[in-house]
Amino acid sequence: MGDHSHGSPENSGTVAKADDVAQDRFPDPGLPPHRPRLADRDPRAAKRHERQVALLFTISIIGTLFFFVAYFVLGHLGEMTFAELRVQNAALGLGTAFAMLGIGVGIVHWAKTLMPDHELMEMRHEIRSEEDRQDAVEIIDTVLEESGIKRRPLIRNTLIGAIALAPIPAIFMFRDLDRTGNTAHQMIDSLRHTMWDKGIRLTRDPSGTPIKASDVQIGSAFHVIPEGLNETEHPLNEKAKAVVLLMRMDPAEMQISEGRETWNVDGIVAYSKICTHVGCPIALYEQHTHHLLCPCHQSTFDLTQECKVIFGPAGHALPQLPITVDSEGYLVAQSDFHEPVGPSYWERG
Ligand code: FES
């Protein structure tokens, strides 16, 4: 395989020659001289670094085990409160972080302290012949030999353990995306609908108290959930789809498209709070510009133009919830949203 002898440890400090003109204009600075590290000179230092690398891989294993404890022990205490859910999420995140960091930092430490650190260089070229392939196999064998993975069973065994365990949490998390046993089609269909329906009152999040039209002043914004959400079987799932922002503006400033003339109550409008990019909750309403801002990737929606995207990566306007008032003056939905809320990963047609 080509001329990789240029980069062998004995030839460290040389590079393959470029053409003469370029050589004249850009003199080859060569490679810096090789400086032996402590572990190269002192076997006891090498042994110490080996134990440190193994410790980092062991931390990864402990992180994965911690994930399992948080997942199975905390996850099976029955119906969890928000506070307990937060604790469990923090524990799952910590376990996963240590599992990944342990492997990453361990490999970097291993490479920096124990693996050979002479620099290799070869010209880039295509692999065409059987001979080239043989050369490539030889290089891989050399890398395995020089990495010391065969000579250092402590590192090898802890690395195998860490790498074997680390992906398992991802399997559990993907499985949890749906525990209902629904088909993919049913799952997508469930995303098309929220619990909003004709006559359901708009209530404050999280107290659940209903909102009268007279409570909503120009410039104010309410975080809203459907009445009865907290009594549903899976309130968090329902909230993730149905949460809404309620605002009031001067009707003269609103551009209303055909068919939506009756969806607001004297300038009070309700829009899905779920960003149409990748689903972050929209958090900021600028009352002077009437812009809604998503904190994740700065998508900006213009309330005066039915929450059309005016900046950022979101692909669709925020869906509007048609609202009206009931006989007692409380704000209620006229129906569900007329289009799916949230990210547009899948076709809306
Ligand atoms: S999720 Fe809102 S901009 Fe990306």
From TrEMBL:
UniProt domain Rieske: residue ranges: 262-332
Highest taxon of source: Bacteria
CDD domains with a match to the protein in the record: Rieske
Topology class, membrane: Multi-pass membrane protein
Compositional bias (Basic and acidic residues): 17-27
Record-given protein name: Cytochrome bc1 complex Rieske iron-sulfur subunit
Keyword terms of this UniProt record: 2Fe-2S, Cell membrane, Disulfide bond, Electron transport, Iron, Iron-sulfur, Membrane, Metal-binding, Oxidoreductase, Respiratory chain, Transmembrane, Transmembrane helix, Transport
Keyword Transmembrane: yes
Pfam families linked: QcrA_N, Rieske
InterPro entries: QcrA_N, Rieske_2Fe-2S, Rieske_2Fe-2S_sf, Rieske_Fe-S_prot
GO molecular function: 2 iron, 2 sulfur cluster binding; metal ion binding; monooxygenase activity; oxidoreductase activity, acting on paired donors, with incorporation or reduction of molecular oxygen
Function in brief: Iron-sulfur subunit of the cytochrome bc1 complex, an essential component of the respiratory electron transport chain required for ATP synthesis. The bc1 complex catalyzes the oxidation of menaquinol and the reduction of cytochrome c in the respiratory chain. The bc1 complex operates through a Q-cycle mechanism that couples electron transfer to generation of the proton gradient that drives ATP synthesis.
Entry's localization field: Cell membrane
A single GO cellular-component term on record: plasma membrane
Similarity remark: Belongs to the Rieske iron-sulfur protein family.
Organism whose genome encodes this protein: Glutamicibacter arilaitensis
Matches recorded under PANTHER family: CYTOCHROME B-C1 COMPLEX SUBUNIT RIESKE, MITOCHONDRIAL (PTHR10134)
PROSITE patterns in alphabetical order: RIESKE
Transmembrane segments: 53-78, 90-111, 154-174
Residues in coiled coil: none
Region (Disordered): 1-44
